[in-house]
Amino acid sequence: MAGKAANKLMAIIGDEDTCTGFLLGGIGEYNAKRHPNFLVVNKDTPVSDIEDSFRAFTGRADIAIILINQYIAEMIRHIIDQHDKAIPAILEIPSKDQPYDPSKDSILRRAKGMYNADDFR
Known about the structure:
The protein is α/β, with parallel strands linked by helices and about 120 residues long.
């Protein structure tokens, strides 16, 4: 099991600054079909491209975690809300210009609904 987990990748859907930081950190990869594990989103990126990349990343067996800037996640919230599998895990992260708002994070809202405060005492 540890060997299989070691072969999993992180994917990122983010603005240029976020993607650049993670790519410099070494997460950038291409699979055997030469598809990258990242999408750089700018103001001209069509929402359909973001949706297509998200669907492609969730369908890839080599991706375990998808990092997405929260403001971009808001653009495709209807698709993220449909994602119900544990892997790949979807993590919404802040961007340089947009702070993180936990009330918008649908995965966090679902997790809060599974537990109550008494579970942690």
